[in-house]
Amino acid sequence: MKSSPSLLSLSLVLGSIACLHGVARANWEVTDTIPLDAVIVDLVKDPNRPFLYAVNRTGSEVLFIDLQLKTIKPVYVGKLPTSLAINAAGTKMYVANRGIGSGTPAGYQISVVDLATQTKTHHFLTKYQPVNLVCGPGERLYYNDGAWENGNIHNVAGQTGIVNLTTETELGKIGNFQIKSRMVVNDTKTKLFGQYVYDGNLGEMGVFDIEEPVAFKLDRHPYSPYPYGWDYNNYSISANGKRLAYGSVLFNANNLLIQYGVFPEQIQALNADGSVAFGSSQVWDTTTFATTGNAKSLLNHGLDSRLMHYDAAENCVYAFTHQGFSIRKLEQAPPQTLPEDEDADSDGLTNAEELALNTDPLDADTDGDGLDDGAEHLSGLDPLVANLQTAEMRALLLTLRRSPAQLELGSPIIWLEYDQVNLSLQLSAGDGLDNMSPLGSPMIFSHPKPDTSKQFYQIKAK
């Protein structure tokens, strides 16, 4: 097709919405960076002091990070520490040491650190190798010997021990349930959640009553059964104890059969009431599960974090990332009022249209897949769900950043790899791109893939 007053144009057609009020939008943002120059394996905020505690396994130390002075103090805690827990009084820190203590049976160590003096005072021995720790009620500490080593399952059979922190002696096990994952407890410290082993190698989610020294199982759910029932190690619970995230699923913590929805990524932390979930790369609004079936992205932070800690007192999240080996702080920004008829992020959708679609008016690519929200909306794709696309399709859609958007195709060939082709083609004529008039009605092309073995489809101008 030669260049002429008649051009093949792709027009973005969107419904009009009356601009009566501004669109209020509260968002999350990265507000601080704490460089560590170390890889950490656990991260906990002190409930009473302005300190973050980070476990540096290779350095056999816990980093005391002063959030006010921005200083870092390393404290040696024992060989190969893996996790830490703070007692209910907030006076002591307990650190699991993966390395062998005395080298004899029942010779593994849990170190005790005085948080006021920031020093290790002593350690006590445990019957089983401690990897994951969590503090329960009545000065009781729960530990297990884990299933993960450098991202891989290293141990199938294992044990879960209970320690009386007053006497620092073993109380026994949680029955015959071998919990292998990280563990979390609810707000009242009456329930413990974790993946446990049953019938040899298989495993499932478990909820355990820990109100009394003798614990027993309250609830179970076989998600997900393979491999070995602990595909993921990222249990997180809301501060009010009502929502539980495991893997990429949001559960009702009081009934595991109630599942609110599935995220497109792994969830590392939940906010106070579970209305916001913090994923490895995005922050999600979970309340939209009930209205749209999907969680709405609030921020594409792109940190690729596998270790996060939510601070309920400050309503913020601390996330470790390998990007600069640092900790990033995520906070909720003050709400902004955006004019409904403007396009704040220049993605081809007005702020009001973004509100109607549940997309982010301050992020041109809400789902972080490299395609602008407006372009995805035009092509029939869901701007809340990340899509794969070819370089040709990416280039085409990224061109559609305004409404109407036009693209001259000298010899148009579009390659698609979607399950359905859905394009709107509008022929326009004029003496320049700034002075175009449509000729006839748009031509709608919509067709499912007729053969699942076919991966590419071609559209040519004839």
UniProtKB/TrEMBL annotation:
Keywords for the protein's UniProt record, in alphabetical order: Calcium, Secreted, Signal
Domain of life (superkingdom): Bacteria
Main location: secreted
Subcellular location field: Secreted
Signal sequence residues: 1-26
SUPFAM superfamilies: YVTN repeat-like/Quinoprotein amine dehydrogenase
Xref: Pfam families: TSP3_bac (PF18884)
Keyword Kinase recorded: no
Transmembrane segments: none
Protein name (database record): Uncharacterized protein
